[in-house]
Amino acid sequence: EEGRVYNFAAGPACLPYNVLKEAQADLINWKGTGASVLEMSHRSKQFLSIIQKAEADLRELLAIPDNYKVLFLQGGATSQFSAIPLNLAGPEDAVDYVVTGSWGSKAVQEAGKYAKANLAATGKPGKFTDIPPQSEWKLTQGAKYLHICANETIQGVEFKEYPEVEGETVLVADMSSNFCSKPVDVSKFGLIYAGAQKNVGPSGVTIVIVREDLLGKAQPSTPVMLDYKIHSNNESLYNTPPCFSIYMTGLVFADLLKQGGLAAVAKKNEEKAQLLYDAIEGSDGFFKCPVAKPVRSLMNVPFTMRDPELEAEFLKEATAQGLIQLKGHRSVGGVRASIYNALPLAGIQKLVHLMKDFQAKHS
Ligand code: PMP
């Protein structure tokens, strides 16, 4: 892995080294076909085998029940902010949003264009450092769905358990930044969506897992590219899909299965996050994580420094040591370590080492 850095970017993010090597070996001549996946017709039997295996492996990883469809779509998770209300609600239907950070804020704002979007709860008054207690949520009876962001990538706030919904209301979750980081009981959700570019691949493909009975009720004005039923009827091949991104994502799914599946992956992720949070907690306030302990993300760890003046120097030293992309999101500042599945434990050990050294030098 000579010359490779530890990449703490929030997304697009690091990919497993062995997956990159495999893609490299396949790049010019995929399995003796004489052509690259980059050049392959999406209608060819070769590509069909790629997308079908990707779906089968994802189904195995998450134990996705048979009455759920898996869609490989384009337009990023952001397109889903519009597609979800358009497909699951009518213009006069209520839809509930619990907002715990920047992405949930964007989702509810977009939903308001297509349905009666209700802000059931928001962590904004507390600067998104906690999830408002469920007893304070103002849910709408008969809402078509309740939307949450399972892991807020910028604020580092993660749901550790998922809310129950009542009656016909279904739970919808944006899992972009913790997708496939741990097992999930898919049957508790009406719909799960995730952009690939954090945990499971490069940018360009967004995965939607949706309960079959929710399909076919899209608003008449829904753009064809946002209509789940169209994509479902055409096995994600209604138009030209992002073939190479789907291929890469498939390689990542296979790799996760090889690692022992998501329970094994979750265990590694817990160990990695614990090491970093312990270092922050053990720094006597030199480093500080603003997020309430019970909801701290295992994927995105934001922290600040007691002396913000030292931040630039810290980031510079990190980069010099091959620990890159640690700058916090421009909207919140500070430092953020995104420690997705593919970020090795050794990278976190090196970061923790730097934090200790840096503190010793500046105390
Ligand atoms: N939701 C979450 C939780 C995200 O982290 C992101 C991207 N950072 C998005 C949605 C938007 O995804 P995209 O850029 O793929 O539209």
From TrEMBL:
Coiled coil: none
GO molecular function ontology, one term from the record: O-phospho-L-serine:2-oxoglutarate aminotransferase activity
Keywords assigned: Amino-acid biosynthesis, Aminotransferase, Pyridoxal phosphate, Serine biosynthesis, Transferase
EC number of this enzyme: 2.6.1.52
Pathway(s): Amino-acid biosynthesis; L-serine biosynthesis; L-serine from 3-phospho-D-glycerate: step 2/3
Signal peptide feature range: none
Domain Aminotransferase class V: 5-351
GO annotation, biological process: L-serine biosynthetic process
GO cellular component: cytoplasm
Record's catalysed reaction(s): 4-(phosphooxy)-L-threonine + 2-oxoglutarate = (R)-3-hydroxy-2-oxo-4-phosphooxybutanoate + L-glutamate; O-phospho-L-serine + 2-oxoglutarate = 3-phosphooxypyruvate + L-glutamate
Cofactor section: pyridoxal 5'-phosphate
First-tier enzyme category under EC: transferase
Protein family: Belongs to the class-V pyridoxal-phosphate-dependent aminotransferase family. SerC subfamily.
Protein name: Phosphoserine aminotransferase
Species whose genome carries this gene: Klebsormidium nitens
Whole sequence portion shown: 86 to 448 of 448
